[in-house]
Design goal:
single chain; 14 strands; 378 residues
């Protein structure tokens, strides 16, 4: 039986469009010059069909941009065909077989073998050497709604491997048996682990964390995809409280209509949920005092970005969140910053959550704003 999607669903998948007034490019929709093309892709059908279409659209980028990275080379050398990878697959199939089907379809569409692509989707669940080439990053800021007419806001810098700049995607996904959603997507990875929103008005942005508690369980890419299938924010939080997660992220979650925001630090071993009542920010390490004795890797870049965001949150009384996220001195916005965690800002997403809907904007860079815009009415 088809999933009972809301009336807003069609608006969600139809209203992504470029704003030509302030942007030099249209997210791949037109052939204008750009340093960071974000290619729009629309897919629909069963989970396998969705994966097949995503794989066909991203296959060249997977081969040219993923398989050539030092991180993937280390993953493949250490973990391909391993017992641990098989255990992660077993846990994923047991918990969320429908999303494993999406990876299977993606492998078919990209003409790649499943295990290699599943390995890539377990990148954060498998240990690399201490000096490994894992890409690190992302910064988000959250502002609660003020008064009856102002939106709650989640804004997010998506930081990833420099090789992916100009080779990522904005996907509109219409499953047969789940809510539609839109999301920024890396080549070969399930959508969900970056920033996006579903047809029920549930918004999610993700920051990487490196807590030393990896275990056999459901890979975190599967978890973030599962969140985008939720109808309510509380349902998403329940997923993040599962004890069988292999690793975890920091999740900024919001719900249009309610204008509710929560910050969730969710490594494999714990889950701390914070209701956002004052402007807040997060970089790439857990910061709640309950994690004071938790072993984690904290890079210098993450410490500096967290400190800068904490200092500048007061600016939000006068400015839009871009004034914080586009900082190039710390830098929060990372363009070849020569930091200690191998990352570059690939896009910036700003999600406004109103009582009657939501609006979102994707910036390709500070000089290429409003590359993609969307609207959801509820």
């Amino acid at each position: 039986m088809p999933w009972p999607v809301p009336r807003a669903y069609k608006l969600l998948i139809m209203c992504t469009e470029p704003d030509f007034s302030e942007s030099r490019n249209a997210g791949g929709l037109v052939g204008m010059e750009t340093n960071n093309s974000i290619t729009p892709v629309s897919v629909a059908g069963s989970h396998f069909e969705i994966g097949t279409s995503l794989g066909a659209a991203t296959g060249d980028a997977i081969r040219d941009r993923v398989f050539t990275t030092p991180e993937f080379a280390e993953l493949k050398a250490r973990w391909l065909n391993s017992t641990r990878l098989g255990q992660l697959e077993e846990a994923a199939r047991s918990a969320y077989p429908e999303f494993v089907r999406e990876i299977e379809g993606m492998a078919a569409g990209a003409e790649l073998d499943f295990e290699t692509l599943f390995l890539w989707n377990c990148r954060g669940d498998l240990r690399l050497p201490p000096d490994g080439a894992e890409a690190e990053g992302c910064t988000c800021v959250l502002q609660p709604a003020v008064g009856h007419d102002k939106p709650a806001i989640i804004a997010h810098n998506e930081d990833g491997a420099p090789e992916f700049l100009g080779h990522c995607f904005w996907v509109t996904v219409n499953p047969d048996d789940g809510p539609g959603f839109q999301s920024f997507m890396y080549p070969g990875m399930l959508p969900g682990h970056t920033f996006g929103m579903n047809a029920w008005g549930l918004a999610q942005t993700i920051n990487n964390i490196r807590v030393h508690d990896l275990q056999i369980g459901v890979p975190r890419q599967i978890i973030t995809r599962a969140v985008l299938a939720c109808r309510e924010l509380n349902d998403a939080v329940d997923i993040l409280k599962r004890k069988d997660r292999a690793s975890g992220f920091h999740h900024a979650l919001g719900q249009a209509g309610l204008r509710r925001l929560v910050s969730v630090e969710a490594p494999a071993s714990e889950c701390y949920v914070k209701e956002i009542e004052v402007p807040s920010g997060h970089a790439n390490h857990v910061i709640d005092p309950s994690f004071d004795t938790t072993r984690q890797t904290v890079t210098r870049s993450s410490m500096l970005r967290q400190a800068k965001v904490d200092t500048d949150l007061g600016i939000w009384t006068r400015e839009e969140p871009e004034v914080i996220l586009f900082d190039t001195e710390t830098p929060v916005y990372r363009a070849n910053d020569d930091g200690d965690d191998y990352a570059q800002t690939l896009a910036t997403g700003v999600l406004h959550l109103y009582a009657n809907g939501a609006e979102w904007t994707v910036h390709a860079s500070p000089s290429e704003r409003h590359t993609i815009r969307g609207r959801l009415n509820i």
